[in-house]
């Protein structure tokens, strides 16, 4: 994992090249280093983005998986003020923790955009800011901001507490957790300082705004026929602040970049870096609170820069653990292992509706792997050990019901391919299809267990090893640890293309069963 870096300027004369196939740029929405990584964020953008990236890589497609860490987010400042620390120290500590948590959950990122820690990225954002001002994309405007005199800070994000101007639910600055309407803190009804509870003053502040009206039709057209994101386009205000007062945020011309605009500009610079390697198609994974940022603000800036707009959005609803009882990703990985956690957050992925976490469902996700999957696999490996000296039998796959099972697996392979397409990516369906493979294989094993003829027994065992090999292939994007162990046991390659899924291990291969469980370690 590296920080996105500046590339040298392109040479004036480029060698003639054949057009490269477009890369798939998978973007997981930026994290805010104001706390540990919560299981809700794994269930939202991160694990799903990683599963898609892994699957597309097995197909030989060029994939870039990135996210960002927004050190300048006002929630970092709020956390610092509440705990008596410096915002920089809060961002540093939680930024490192989040990166480590993602690694432990098996999320393999190619780059993390972190302008606060990357002078090159920062300079390019500042250059873009000046260019957008010079071209009149950003315009000077004096806008009201909230100032808490006793605390001595401007209110933004989690520092402002009030009620949503759209639905009247309790909300902080940024986006309403109930109706998702984006807001500026000054719009909140009954707004107070979240640190001291005092009523802030409204002060006029000169700065820059990005008027959005000019982009609305173009973006409406772009999103037509794509997932229903029109709500965000309707609710987004006519203009958003590009700058904010105060001492937090990336410095630009005597001010600081405003939160949402700063995130969009971070993305724009990352997009230029990705585009320098050739054409790309972007697929974004984000929580619903970031919908307006990814449907309007980011595309608007990409449009100005002449870069490709996002092609597909995968928007998740909140996955919550109940008030005051967070479940940190790091604890969940330690408790149940990365594979069980990845399987669980995909099986209960909060798409189309919010999801409330239940411990017994997480335990159920684990036992599906440790009892269902491992139970069947242990049975096959025991037969190989006891009846074939630990080697793959030299027999063509067969047995009662093999023809039907094989046809079913071919259909499953096609359905899995569909479920892993960037447009219709469906992690919940992936989990169900993989469970179906194991269920059918276990049934096949039970039906063939009483077979007395050694030749037919060997054929049924070869058939099950073919299914195990397919499972190692198909499960790898979702469950890389267990699928990797299964592949090593069978002597087949982990993360191989799905087109080779139904090739079983070679006859005579010595199977190296691991000491521990295959899945759900
Ligand atoms: Zn609301
Ligand atoms: Zn205050």
From TrEMBL:
Its EC number is 6.1.1.10. Gene3D superfamilies: HUPs (3.40.50.620), Methionyl-tRNA synthetase, Zn-domain (2.20.28.20). GO terms for molecular function: ATP binding; methionine-tRNA ligase activity. One of its GO terms (biological process) is methionyl-tRNA aminoacylation. The keyword Nucleotide-binding applies. The keyword Isomerase does not apply. GO terms for cellular component: cytosol. Keywords: Aminoacyl-tRNA synthetase, ATP-binding, Ligase, Nucleotide-binding, Protein biosynthesis. SUPFAM superfamilies: Nucleotidylyl transferase (SSF52374). It catalyses: tRNA(Met) + L-methionine + ATP = L-methionyl-tRNA(Met) + AMP + diphosphate. Residues 29-222 form the Methionyl/Leucyl tRNA synthetase domain. It comes from the Bacteria. It holds the Pfam family tRNA-synt_1g. Belongs to the class-I aminoacyl-tRNA synthetase family. This is Methionine--tRNA ligase. It comes from Streptomyces smaragdinus.
């Amino acid at each position: 994992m590296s920080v996105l870096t500046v590339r040298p300027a392109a040479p004036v004369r480029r060698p003639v090249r054949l057009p490269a196939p477009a890369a798939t740029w998978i973007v997981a929405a930026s994290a805010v280093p104001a706390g540990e990584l919560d299981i809700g964020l794994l269930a939202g953008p991160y694990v799903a983005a990683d599963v898609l990236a892994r699957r597309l890589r097995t197909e030989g497609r060029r994939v870039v998986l990135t996210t960002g860490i927004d050190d300048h987010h006002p929630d970092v400042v709020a956390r610092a003020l509440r705990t008596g620390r410096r915002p920089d120290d809060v961002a540093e500590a939680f930024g490192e923790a989040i990166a480590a948590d993602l690694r432990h959950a098996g999320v393999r990122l190619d780059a993390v955009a972190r302008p606060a820690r990357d002078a090159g990225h920062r300079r390019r954002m500042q250059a873009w800011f000046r260019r957008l001002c010079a071209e009149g994309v950003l315009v000077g405007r004096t806008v009201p901001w909230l100032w808490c005199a006793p605390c001595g800070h401007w209110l933004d994000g989690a520092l402002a507490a009030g009620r949503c101007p759209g639905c009247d639910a309790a909300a902080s600055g940024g986006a309403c957790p109930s109706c998702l309407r984006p807001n500026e803190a000054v719009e909140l009804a009954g707004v107070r300082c979240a640190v001291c509870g005092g009523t802030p003053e409204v002060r006029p502040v000169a700065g820059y705004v990005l008027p959005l009206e000019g982009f609305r039709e173009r973006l409406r057209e772009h999103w037509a026929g794509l997932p229903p994101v029109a709500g965000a386009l309707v609710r987004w205000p006519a203009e958003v602040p590009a700058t904010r007062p105060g001492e937090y945020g990336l410095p630009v011309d005597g001010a600081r970049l405003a939160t949402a605009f700063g995130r969009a500009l971070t993305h724009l610079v990352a997009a230029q870096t990705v585009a320098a390697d050739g054409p790309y198609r972007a697929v974004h994974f984000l929580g619903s609170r970031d919908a307006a940022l990814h449907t309007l603000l980011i595309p608007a800036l990409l449009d100005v820069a002449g870069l490709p707009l996002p092609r597909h959005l995968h928007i998740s609803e909140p996955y919550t653990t109940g008030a005051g009882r967070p479940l940190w990703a790091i604890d969940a990985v330690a408790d149940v292992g990365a594979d069980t956690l990845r399987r669980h957050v995909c099986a209960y992925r909060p798409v189309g509706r919010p999801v409330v976490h239940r411990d017994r469902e997480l335990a159920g996700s684990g036992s599906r792997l440790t009892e269902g999957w491992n139970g069947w696999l242990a049975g096959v490996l025991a037969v190989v050990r006891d009846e074939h000296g630990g080697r793959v039998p030299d027999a063509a796959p067969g047995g009662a019901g093999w023809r039907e099972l094989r046809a079913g697996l071919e259909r499953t392979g096609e359905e899995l391919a569909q479920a892993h397409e960037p447009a219709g990516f469906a992690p919940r369906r992936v989990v169900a299809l993989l469970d179906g493979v194991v269920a059918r294989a276990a049934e096949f094993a039970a039906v063939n267990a009483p077979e007395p003829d050694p030749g037919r027994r060997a054929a049924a065992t070869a058939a099950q090893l073919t299914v195990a090999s397919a499972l190692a292939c198909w499960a790898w994007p979702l469950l890389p640890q267990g699928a990797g162990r299964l592949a090593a046991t069978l002597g087949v390659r982990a993360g191989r293309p799905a087109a080779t899924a139904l090739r079983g291990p070679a006859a005579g291969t010595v199977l190296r069963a691991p000491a521990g469980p295959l899945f759900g370690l």
